[in-house]
């Protein structure tokens, strides 16, 4: 079983997730809807956004607008599926617990021959809190095992591990590229030197277990948002001073580049694996959907401002794949160094946490780990070395982001939530015909046509990468 080794007390990071953890209560550490909105915002605004300006500048303005709006809307739909399934899992587990205690003979496990009125009375009057209240954290791995069986659970762990491998490779390449640019040395010498130096310095931390990372996550949060706001302000000031791309030189649509952009957008808008950890401490869970909706609207606008200010400021050929590097020659040296080295600070602090999470999920995926001597050390190396090898041969951050989002990202963001929604609803339909009247966390997209739409969209994005 994978343990939740990455989360801080209250501030989770979008890349840190566990596999089957549950039975976690936050009665003593709840937070308001405003705080939840801030945390979810920080999860969404990650490293993926730094690859978007260059990608959209090359794919075209029209392609960028259409892609960002479509992906963010589809991502919001699938997040509502995750919220619904999380509440359903709480109901399922709560009713089984009540049945074991002998308090009631009904509930979700009850024979369908019982009258519907009696079923509903059991759920609303006997079980307290309300049946579909979210009080326990069920990670996506456990949800997959609960509703999709061992095959679905294995599939999720496999794509989760692939996603984390991609994350680690992106981080390693980003840090080495950033340091190389900051020093300005020969590419063949500096990139590999910084890559190996980074791994030698950070690698040993991957062999430990991090349980309390609140201060680390707060540091990352402050650094990330300071850098993002600063990039927007500096770019807008530069545009105001007359440094802008002539209208006739702007790229409006490039089909080939737009295909790659889809995968990057998926990577940028994904937070689905962290939904349970964001929702559980929320004091008033009736505001869950409101928090998610507000965040997706804000992040969409945030991405739009960063991306399109960059596109209007410089031609596509001048925007580097890692957007922070565009400020390395700014006239204010302090700001130039801060933005140039921003990925080094934030990505380095998260790299060990992601590696630890990947190791734990690999151990959950391969039960043989329990019988091995030094299994933790062995699986740490298995988690750490492949991304390093990838970083040796691939230096393009944009390509890595696109590939990670187009394959593993799709499975986590659309396929798994869609299948969970279908199978959990089917189980409820058989046991509680009128469950929609009681499920106060149900998705506003109740027709299964929305589920099929998200699955079709995932298939479309995948086909654009393969064909």
CATH class: Mainly Alpha
Element string (H = helix, E = strand): HHHHHHHHHHHHHH
Shape: globular
Strand content: under 5%
- The average pLDDT score comes to 83
- Oligomer classification: single chain
Largest sheet: none
Structural class: mainly alpha
Q: Under CATH, the topology is which?
A: Amino acid/polyamine transporter I
> Terminal Cα separation, in Å?
37 Å
How many domain regions? 1
Stretches where pLDDT falls below 50 for ≥5 residues? 1-28, 102-127
Rg over CA atoms: 23 Å
Instruction: Provide the helix percentage.
Output: 55-70%
For this structure, what is the CATH homologous superfamily?
Amino acid/polyamine transporter I
Number of helices: 14
CATH architecture: Up-down Bundle
DSSP summary, beta strand count: 0
Please describe what this structure looks like.
Keywords: Glycoprotein, Membrane, Transmembrane, Transmembrane helix. This is Amino acid transporter transmembrane domain-containing protein. It is a single chain. This protein is mainly α. It has a single domain (33-91, 130-466), classed as Amino acid/polyamine transporter I. Helix content is 66%, strand content 0%. The chain contains 14 helices and no strands. It has helices at residues 33-44, 52-59, 61-101, 116-126, 140-183, 187-202, 214-240, 255-268, 275-279, 288-313, 333-365, 375-393, 397-431, 448-466. The longest helix is centred in the middle third of the chain and has 44 residues, at 140-183. The radius of gyration is 23 Å and the shape is globular. It starts with 32 loop residues before the first helix and ends with a helix. Residues 1-28 and 102-127 have low confidence and may be disordered.
